[in-house]
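[Meeting: bench + compute handoff]

Bench side (C.D.) handed over the final construct sequence. Compute side (W.E.) agreed to return the predicted structure before the next meeting so the bench team could plan truncations. Sequence as handed over:
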Amino acid sequence: MEKPQYRRVVLKLSGEALAGQQGYGISHDMLVSVANQVTELRDLGVQVALVVGGGNIWRGIAGSSQGMDRATADYMGMLATVMNALALQDALENCGADTRVLSAIEMRQVAEPYIRRRAIRHMEKGRIIIFAAGTGNPYFSTDTTAALRAAEIEADIILMAKRVDGVYDSDPLKNPGAQRYARLKYLDVLSRGLGVMDSTAASLCMDNNIPIVVFDLTQTGNIRRVVMGDTIGTYIGRDCE
């Protein structure tokens, strides 16, 4: 039987990806698809941690651009990620998975507080964990959360689930001639401003040598394909040509 390529992974889901085709809110069909695929990974023996954004409900940068205090807008965005995390938890448990939501902002009625050792112990027991509320600090994106948590729990890779099938030299939705990269170095992402993740997150991954795969979430089965080592999307690492 084919074995997974990675033992412990962080799956980064954008809020926009959870919205599916509707563009706003939470798509039931997308929740079910993600839950089924993540549960399949758990059944393969892969330890899975999810980091979810909140852009389908609220974006802190958008709020601050309209005159709202940036820190306040960012805290609202963190609360949006908690809503998405609870929706994911419900979908995963409907698939029979054992889950825990760990929040960087303490709210004991709905989630456990984030504690690194507790998170690792949950994964070792076969539970799927969902990191919510970002880092708990304003001015940091959920991409940075994914990089930070991946370093803390010693994940093998970050899976960046997008609505496009990799990293391009320009926006493929606006430029039909955009070229997709198969492999990139961290420095390429930083120097070319490719928009994979913010510079803080990319630097964290580079400093801690955490590889990243950017792939298309809308294609059912892609999460499993990445974990099994199939060549899809764009691979970002230290030794890429």
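W.E. noted at the follow-up: The domain at 8-237 is CATH 3.40.1160.10 (Carbamate kinase). C.D. will use this when planning the next construct.
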